[in-house]
Design goal:
Length: 265
Amino acid sequence: MLRFIIETSELNNILNLLFKIFNVRITYFDPEGREIDTFDIKPHSSFCRRRREIKSFKNKCDICDQINLAKARLEKKIQLYTCHAGLYETAVPLYSNDDYLGAFLFGQIRPKEKNILKKSRVFSADFSSLPAFHREYVFHIAELLKYMSEYIIIKEIIRHKKNPWVESARKYIMQNLKNRITIDGIAEQTGKSRSFITHNFKKEFNLPAAAFILQSRLTAARHGIESGKKIREVAEEFGFYDEFHFSRMFRQYFGLPPSGVKVKY
């Protein structure tokens, strides 16, 4: 069920204008992390398009994007990162007060600082055709897009439908990831019945309540590991049975073990 309204033509005009100026692919992901294709999204670069034909490569791309979209949402700030293929990508979150309205994602940019195509030269021509910018310049584009997002919010080009119980449920879950969360607790917090939450949660969040809570905990746990916390400490903090259980669930969701996460700060 669509919980927000997009003025498609206006958003399309903005993204097309930015594409003409910077020659980078910019797309919009809704609050549930889905890429919205109701407007004229520019195709992937030939380098990314050809490599994404390899299923394992595409899966890594999707996981990388979802992780950084989640971080942009959690931290409420721009996430400029290097994807697994070595290209610059950036997630720019959209917030109206405390309401998350999704994020812009742009990238497929070759770092101008260095040549990162180290192994196969099969894709060298496609790689050379990618736009090349310094990291600082990419961040400036992100800042411009952040300012544009304020215009988008003021003009209500993207806006929430009025459905208070959904945001109340989301807020309750995000504030209690380290505590036990139940359907009864969500029902009490939102003023709805248990049966209402059971039947309507998936329609709004695209996941059953248990799966959404697990996904949110794993994302927050990964952020904890990246900040330098021990795996055992994070597993206990977010209520997993033990380190083994946490590692198994983490690998299923992210495609790598917790020990494979790099400490960033």
